[in-house]
Amino acid sequence: MRRKFLSVCLTGIAAAGAACGSPARVPVSAETGVNPVIPRPKESLIPVINVVTAKGWPDDATPVAGEGLAVHAFASGLDHPRWLYVLPNGDVLVAETNAPKRPDDNKGIKGFFFRAFQAKAGGAVPSMNRIVLLRDTNGDGVADTRSIFLSGLYAPFGMTLVGDALYVANSDGIVRFPYVTGVTNIVGPGVKVVDLPAGRINHHWTKNVIASPDGSKLYASVGSNSNVMENGYLHEQNRAAIWEIDRATGKHRVFATGLRNPVGLAWEPESQALWVAVNERDELGSDLVPDYITSVRDGGFYGWPFSYYGRHIDYRVEPQKPELIHRAIVPDYALGPHTASLGLAWSGANNLPTRFSEGMFVGQHGSWNRKPWSGYKVIFVPFSHGRPSGQPIDVLTGFLKPNGEALGRPVGVAVDKTGALLVADDVGNTVWRGTRR
Q1: d(Cα 200, Cα 280) in Å, to the nearest integer?
Q2: If we measure between CA atoms, which residue out of 247, 256, 189 comes closest to residue 214?
Q3: Which end of the chain is flanked by fewer CB atoms within 10 Å, N or C?
């Protein structure tokens, strides 16, 4: 009977995009904030599968801007834009990228369906492996020049500039390129600073990088090689972690661990703490586990894979490590289950309404493992005295239609030189620009 149900469910999903699994019992709002509700897990033979259908935006359509805001396309017609970096002169770098070949990831029947679902949701396009430079020469809020800034990269993602050196986080390492203000392209292979974990599985392939405020160190985010260590301990060495790297020598150490898929990185200026956006684990039901943002402590352990949101034990993982669970740090701020919160940017000197003056912008790529869907929007988490201080505020919504058609999916977020908010949309192939109305 179970095999028959599995066959019928998976066949139905592949054919019609129907949802499998039980719906959520707890609203996203209850699992958001500094004291989230953490329900009991609800495992099942068939995980919750509720995949959107990527459509893209009709002509002249845009996301829905929050109160007091307006939004328009800064640049459209891009090729799977995932991440953004704003250079000091105002030029905007966009990583047009996707996963590299991973022959040992998602194998077997489960992997077959995962790849089908990924294609349905717009995530299976080939990687352009390049960074594009966008420039607004006349100050009208629309990029009027576009050039290939760097090409021949390997699933590039994070970018950071220190002095005259631009650092790019490829999926397998950080590479340094010489940078001169105003150049529109860089030719040359660059210099490898440090290798990052990759290989034939490379499950969470996105690698991000940020420089320390004094420029002496780089911090790189490295996701896990599985959902909950099902590929074995050896494949998780130095993963699910943030690395600290000496910029001059490339020497490195693991700065914090137990972070399943850390992606967005940002500095909070008052506390001078490093913050990270983390995607938590799947297949514990629609209600678990909330993604989160948190400050990162040197030497801190955040639970993965043995526990989640502090000391909530994940009994799927064997053998357990009680000594690690005992010291697992509770994250600072929950963002709701399966929201796929990826982008993270400190509000900085933005030119938006005053309620956005202090806090973090978060790009939520959206769920596949929750019914109903969650995420698919850009939110703002207000801060006070270096800490989150209230419920999130919707900044951009309307990426997902009620029927499950995804017009877009937000990923990276950044504040541009004029104080506007930029959002990379990898299904809409657009960089959106949010401004004060």
Answers
A1: 22
A2: 247
A3: N
Q: Which residues is 207 bridged to in the sheet?
A: 222
Show the low-confidence residues of the chain (pLDDT under 50). Answer: 1-17
**Could you tell me if 374 and 336 are in contact, meaning their C-beta atoms sit under 8 angstroms apart?**
yes
Q: How far apart are CA 97 and CA 75, in angstroms?
A: 16
Q: Nearest 5°: phi and psi at 322?
A: -55, -35
Closest CA to 414 of 341, 340, 345, 342: 345
Distance CA 315, CA 331 (A): 20
Domain of 100? 2-436
Return the SS3 of 8: helix
∠ CA 401-402-407 to the nearest 5 degrees? 15
Task: Using DSSP, state whether 83 is helix, strand or coil.
Answer: strand
In this predicted model, what pLDDT tens digit does every residue of 373-420 receive, in sequence order? Answer: 999 999 999 999 999 999 999 999 999 999 999 999 999 999 999 999
pLDDT for res 354 = 96
Question: What residue has token string 């909070």?
Answer: 268
* Structure tokens, 123: 């995530």
Looking at the DSSP bridge assignments, the partners of residue 211 are 218
pLDDT at position 167: 98
Q: How far does CA 332 lie from the centroid of its chain?
A: 17
The Cα–Cα gap between 260 and 302 comes to 9
pLDDT by residue (tens digit) across 140-177? 999 999 999 999 999 999 999 999 999 999 999 999 99
Looking at residue 251, which CATH number applies to its domain?
2.120.10.30
